[in-house]
C-alpha cells in the first residue's frame, strides 16, 4: 500500500509529473535552486547512511570509555566521529542487554536518526510497522525473522519528541580482538532500529 | 488531532513488509520530492511542527492511500499555498503564473552541506525548574485537541514513571499553529504494557514516549 508505483519514472506517472511541476514552479519563481536538490540527494544517497551508525556501535563495543560517553551524552559522543546535523540534533543511545531488547518506532510520523542511519526504509514509515510495534513487538520481530526468548523484556521507544534513538545491539561472541572497521561490518541498519540482532562473525 | 497519523495500536494494516537490500529511492521523482521538500522548508516560512501538522491534516483516506513521499508533497503544496509561494493557478498550469511571497532565504547548492550538518536544534532554555524528576509517578492527560499534539491516543490518561528528564524543547502543540515556541521540559515516560493495552498485553513489554511537561500530572 505504501509503495504501489513502478520502480521507475515515465511520462505517464501522474505523481512524477506532479513533483516535476512543483519543482518547475518553485525554480521559475526563484524560490529553490535545483542544484541544491542534487546535493541533498547525493548526500543521502552516498554520504550519510547506516555505515555511520555502525561505526558508532563498533567503537562503543571496542572502547568502554566511548560506550560510557555514548550512554551519557550520545549527541556529543556521536558528534566526535563527525556525525551531526539534520534529524540527529538530539541523540540518545539505548543499549541492548542480556535481559532487555530495545525497539524504536515513530507512531506519529517517521522520526528517524538520519545522521547515523540515513533515510528511513519504506516499512519504517508505513502503517503496519507504526501501528503494531507498540502493541505487538514480538509479532513484528517475527516478521523480520527474529524470535526473542519469551523471558526477554522488550522496551519500545516511541519517538514522539525531538530525541532520536540509536539501538546499540549486543556484541556477538567470536569477534574478540577485531578492529573497529571489521566490527562495523557486523552492525546492520535493522540492528540499530531493533528489528534485528548484530550479525554473527562468519 | 486524532488524525490518520496517530497509528499506535491500530489494526488491520497487515504484516510489515521489509524489502531486502531496499534502495533509498524507488523512483527518480522520490529523489526530487526529498530535495524539493527540504529546499522549500529552508525558505524559513514554516516550522517542522507546522509541516507535520499539514501532513496529518490530509484526509485519512488520502493519507493511508499515499506513500511517504506522496504525503510530503501533498502537504508541501498546502504549505506553499498557505504562505503565498504557490497558487492554485500555478498548480493547475504546472508552471509559474502568479507572483510569489518573498522567502527569508533561498538554499543554494554551495550551502547545502553546512545547512544539513547544522540541522535544526529545537532545545531551548526553560525559565522554570523541571516539575518532575526521575522515578516520579505521573499520569498523562486525557484530552482530544483538534490541533497538533505529540501525545498519542494510546498514551492518554495512563499511569507511567518518569525515567529521564531531558531538555527544554519547543512545544509543538503551539508552535505548529504559529503561536510561539513556548518551550517546556521534556521527559521520557515509561508505561507497563498492561497499563496501555490491558487484558492480554505482553507481560514483558514496556513502552516509552517523550512527553512535554504539560502532558503530565502527578499521579
Walk me through the structure.
The complex is a heterodimer of chains A (202) and B (219). Chain A is of the alpha/beta class and 202 residues long. Chain A folds into two domains: 14-46; 48-193, Nitrile Hydratase, Chain A (Alpha-Beta Complex). Helices cover 44% and strands 11% of the residues of chain A. Chain A is built from eleven helices and four strands, in the order H-H-H-H-H-E-E-H-H-H-H-E-E-H-H. In chain A, helix 3 (50-62) packs across helix 4 (64-72). Chain B has two domains: 28-118, Nitrile hydratase, beta subunit (Cyclin A, domain 1); 137-218, SH3 type barrels, CATH 2.30.30.50. Chain B is built from eight helices and five strands; from the N terminus they run H-H-H-H-H-H-E-E-H-E-H-E-E. Chain B has helices spanning 28-41, 48-56, 60-65, 68-82, 88-93, 112-118, 172-175, 193-197, and strands spanning 137-140, 159-169, 184-192, 205-212, 216-218. Chains A and B meet through helix 1, helix 2, helix 7, helix 8 and helix 9 of A and helix 1, helix 2, helix 4, helix 6 and strand 2 of B. Chain A: Its EC number is 4.2.1.84. Chain A: This is nitrile hydratase. Chain A: Residues 15-196 form the Nitrile hydratase alpha/Thiocyanate hydrolase gamma domain.
Amino acid at each position: 500500500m505504501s509503495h504501489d508505483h513502478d520502480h521507475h519514472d515515465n511520462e505517464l506517472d501522474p505523481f512524477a509529473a506532479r513533483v516535476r511541476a512543483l519543482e518547475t514552479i518553485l525554480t521559475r519563481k526563484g524560490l529553490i535552486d535545483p542544484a541544491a536538490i542534487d546535493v541533498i540527494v547525493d548526500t543521502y544517497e552516498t554520504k550519510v547512511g547506516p555505515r555511520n551508525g555502525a561505526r558508532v556501535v563498533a567503537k562503543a563495543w571496542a572502547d568502554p570509555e566511548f560506550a560510557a560517553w555514548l550512554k551519557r551524552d550520545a549527541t556529543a559522543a556521536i558528534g566526535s566521529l563527525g556525525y551531526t546535523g539534520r534529524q540527529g540534533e538530539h541523540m540518545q543511545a539505548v543499549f541492548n542487554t542480556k535481559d532487555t531488547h530495545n525497539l524504536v518506532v515513530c507512531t506519529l510520523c517517521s522520526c528517524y536518526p538520519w545522521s547515523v542511519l540515513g533515510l528511513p526504509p519504506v516499512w519504517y514509515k508505513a502503517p503496519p510497522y507504526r501501528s503494531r510495534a507498540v502493541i505487538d513487538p514480538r509479532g513484528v520481530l517475527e516478521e523480520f525473522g527474529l524470535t526473542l526468548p519469551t523471558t526477554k523484556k522488550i522496551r519500545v521507544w516511541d519517538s514522539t519528541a525531538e530525541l532520536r534513538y540509536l539501538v546499540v545491539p549486543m556484541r556477538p561472541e567470536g569477534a574478540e580482538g577485531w578492529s573497529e572497521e571489521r566490527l562495523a561490518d557486523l552492525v546492520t541498519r535493522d540492528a540499530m532500529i531493533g528489528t534485528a540482532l548484530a550479525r554473527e562473525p562468519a | 488531532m486524532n488524525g490518520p497519523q496517530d497509528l499506535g495500536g491500530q489494526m488491520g494494516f497487515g504484516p510489515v513488509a521489509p524489502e531486502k537490500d531496499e534502495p533509498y529511492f524507488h523512483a527518480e521523482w522520490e529523489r526530487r520530492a526529498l530535495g524539493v521538500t527540504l529546499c522549500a522548508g529552508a525558505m524559513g516560512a514554516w516550522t517542522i511542527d507546522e509541516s507535520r501538522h499539514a501532513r496529518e491534516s490530509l484526509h485519512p483516506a488520502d493519507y493511508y492511500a499515499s506513500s511517504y513521499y506522496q504525503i510530503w508533497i501533498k502537504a508541501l503544496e498546502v504549505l506553499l499555498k498557505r504562505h503565498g509561494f504557490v497558487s492554485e493557478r500555478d498548480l493547475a498550469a504546472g508552471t509559474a503564473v502568479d507572483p510569489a511571497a518573498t522567502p527569508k532565504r533561498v538554499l543554494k547548492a554551495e550551502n547545502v552541506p553546512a545547512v544539513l550538518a547544522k540541522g535544526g536544534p529545537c532545545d531551548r532554555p526553560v525559565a522554570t525548574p523541571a516539575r518532575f524528576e526521575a522515578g516520579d509517578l505521573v499520569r498523562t492527560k486525557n484530552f482530544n485537541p483538534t490541533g497538533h499534539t505529540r501525545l498519542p491516543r494510546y498514551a492518554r490518561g495512563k499511569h507511567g514513571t518518569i525515567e529521564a528528564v531531558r531538555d527544554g524543547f519547543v512545544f509543538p502543540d503551539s508552535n505548529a499553529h504559529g503561536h510561539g515556541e513556548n518551550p517546556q521540559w521534556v521527559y521520557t515516560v515509561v508505561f507497563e504494557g498492561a497499563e496501555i493495552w490491558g487484558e492480554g498485553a505482553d507481560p514483558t513489554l514496556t513502552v516509552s514516549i517523550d512527553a512535554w511537561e504539560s502532558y503530565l500530572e502527578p499521579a
